[in-house]
Amino acid sequence: MNKMNIVMIFILSLFSTVNCWSEEVNLYSARKEHLIKPLIVLFEKETGIKVNIVTAKASQLHQRILREGKKSPADVMLTSDAGNLWKASKEYFFQPINSDILNTRIEAKYRDKNNLWFGLSLRARIIVYSLDRVKENELRGYKFLSNPIFNNRILIRSSSNIYNQSLIAHMISKYGEANTELWAEGLVNNLARDPAGGDRDQIKAIAAGIGDIAIVNSYYIVNMLNSDNRGLFDSLGIYFPKDEEMGTHFNISGAGLLQNAPNANNGKKLIEFLVSDKAQEIYANTNFEYPVVNTIEVPVELKKLGPYEADSTNVYEYGLLSYKAIRLADRVGWK
């Protein structure tokens, strides 16, 4: 093969590559790349749209978008927790999406009231407890964890964590601020230690005998059950809190379309794809999150955690009441 033919083949291959990715979408993700990579690969394969990913913590992405302003290349922001999505919407990050697909497939309680952001997967904040030291009939709703019978027995991470801020906000929406403050005071009095570490650390602390009850996100449990830590659960039980006023607290991971998205149509396509049957099955079976589309079957690993009754509150409230929740936690000394 002569040099001219080699050059021509190289040029044609370049055109082929360019043609393959003739369209693109820029995704800013607060979710780690390995968690969303299977979804991105499938989207690219099915649409021919190249996804350019920037990953960072939610707060870092927030500051980056503010810094970039109208010149931001971001089309879609993907993050965990309705509180984070609500805060982003208050900074006018998002534009509304008019989509029959999103409005039909996602329950109203898992999306913004003005269609600025949409839930894509669900996680429950539930109880892990010592089978040796706690009887299941002692457990009720979250509110009951302030009962003095649990003195020096509760484990939970810091109130600076968005998961706990959203739980407090949810409780304010159900019980009112005064009653929630009484609950938080009781919870703090019942702590086995000052808040430390993440959700996995609370579970390990029960197994180590430091405390008896922890509040954690559901997917951490499944991930630990599928790891070298599975043996810890031989002595641990799992409980979905609920009482007469409030069901189990569920939160979301979700996404919004940026106000100045340069590839807005492709951004909309990406978000719509993430609630497709295939994408929802990947969320459930790979990330161990509950599907936000209620026609998708919950995987066996999640079913094993037990039956649940999700509360009816719109997750929008978690953001709306987040500042009250933060101030409340400060007042009661929840570190």
Could you please describe the fold and organization of this structure?
The protein has 335 residues and is an alpha/beta fold. It folds into two domains: 148 residues, 3-Layer(aba) Sandwich (D-Maltodextrin-Binding Protein, domain 2), CATH 3.40.190; 151 residues, D-Maltodextrin-Binding Protein, domain 2 (3-Layer(aba) Sandwich), CATH 3.40.190.10. 42% of the residues lie in helices and 17% in strands. The chain is built from 14 helices and ten strands. Strands 1, 2, 3, 4, 5, 6, 7, 8, 9 and 10 form a ten-stranded mixed sheet that branches. α2 links the parallel β1 and β2. α2 runs antiparallel to α11 and α6 crosses α7. The radius of gyration is 22 Å and the shape is globular. The N terminus is likely disordered.
Secondary structure topology:
Elements lengths: L2 H18 L2 E7 L3 H15 L1 E7 L2 H11 L7 E5 L1 H9 L3 E2 L4 H6 L11 E14 L23 E2 L6 H14 L1 H13 L9 H9 L5 E5 H8 L10 E4 L10 E9 L5 H10 L3 H10 L3 E2 L8 H4 L12 H5 L1 H10 L4
Parallel strand pairs: 1-2, 1-3, 6-7
Antiparallel strand pairs: 3-9, 4-9, 5-7, 5-8, 5-9, 5-10
Helix pairs in contact: 2-11, 6-7, 6-14, 7-14
